[in-house]
Amino acid sequence: MPTNDISAPLTTTIRQSEDLGKLVRQLRSEQGLLQIDLAGLAGTGNRFIVDLERGKPTLQLQKVLDVLDLLGLEVIVRRKGGDRHGK
After folding, report:
1. Which residues, at least 6 apart from 33, have a Cβ–Cβ distance to it below 8 Å?
2. Distance of alpha carbon 87 from alpha carbon 71, whole angstroms
3. What is the secondary structure of 41-70 as a DSSP string?
4. How far is it, in rounded angstroms, from Cα 35 to Cα 46?
5. First to last CA, the chain
6. Which one-letter DSSP state was computed for residue 80?
7. Are the beta carbons of 71 and 31 closer than 8 angstroms?
8. Distance between CA 37 and CA 18 in Å, rounded?
9. Contact predicate 35/49, CB 8 Å
């Protein structure tokens, strides 16, 4: 039985654009997609996917969210642990 069940919940904390890029690369590979395949599905150029996976910090947010959605991810924003000031 495979240990990489893509239907299993995934929770990871993203602190930098590079973290998100690594996650996108990992999930794309697990789903058997090439960068060009993901770009076609997302309606973007291949360069966008390359830049996303490299952690380029200036990419268009909506396009990033669209790619995450295609990979079966959603973004949830919550306060950091501690009091209401994040301490």
Report:
1. 41
2. 33
3. HHTS-HHHHHHHHHT-TTS-HHHHHHHHHH
4. 6
5. 42
6. P
7. yes
8. 21
9. yes
Of 8, 52, 56, 12, the C-alpha closest to 30 is 8
Mind listing the pLDDT tens digit for each residue in 4-59?
454 556 788 999 999 999 999 999 999 999 999 999 999 999 999 999 999 999 99
Q: CB of 21 within 8 A of CB of 55? A: yes
Report field, pTM of the whole predicted structure over 0.90: no
Check if the beta carbon of residue 70 is closer than 8 Å to that of residue 52: no
Please say whether the beta carbons of 8 and 37 come within 8 A: no
Place of tokens 């893509």: 6
Residue 78 token pair: 């919550």
User: What type of residue is 1?
Assistant: M
Q: Which two tokens stand for residue 7?
A: 């239907």
Rounded CA-CA distance 48/59 in Å is: 8
